[in-house]
Amino acid sequence: MFRVIDILFSAVGLTLGFPLLMVIFVVGLFDTGSPLFRQERVGRHKKPFTLVKFRTMTKETASVASHLANASSITRFGHFLRRTKLDELPQLWNVLKGDMSLVGPRPCLFSQVELVREREARGVLNCRPGITGLAQINDIDMSTPELLAETDQRMLCSLGIRDYFSYIIQTVSGKGAGDRVRQ
After folding, report:
1. Which of 42, 67, 41, 57 lies closest to 142 in space, CA to CA?
2. Cβ(118)–Cβ(146) under 8 Å?
3. Where are the domains of the chain?
4. Dihedral sign of CA atoms 106, 109, 110, 111 in order
5. Strand 36-42 relative to strand 48-54: parallel, antiparallel, unpaired?
6. Any idea what the Cα angle at residue 101 is, between residues 99 and 105, rounded to 5°?
7. In the predicted model, is pLDDT for residue 180 greater than 80?
8. Cβ of 63: how many Cβ atoms within 10 Å?
């Protein structure tokens, strides 16, 4: 049932949001010269997939987890995209393709060995990663791997249709700060 909702919402979001996506893309061209950010992430069953987002940091920024990146790498437009969570919109393509779900554990990097191990031990990697979830609306990020994996597991064990929509609504309405970046 969640997959059907994911397909429907991502298709509608990409279609209706196309003008906004194009505006952000063009502004991103002027901001960084490369508005899309692609990065290999850990997917369902530990299979790699390429996550797509709008770029919020300079092109020279090291490809690391957000909490390991330096805040000075975030561009002025990038701050706006992160604050409004508009940088996440291209992930609707990942949802439509089946790499991700709207709700699920945020996909991590393969280099985040401790988090991958914690998630694997709790069965979290048996599910599609998501754009948002319980951890995101509660400001739990990847800098605390054990807590994040526990929160992801708790969410997945009790995820119902009501929670699914609740996490989306809370995210869209601004709850949760997103991935933290070092100051």
Report:
1. 67
2. yes
3. 2-172
4. negative
5. antiparallel
6. 100
7. no
8. 11
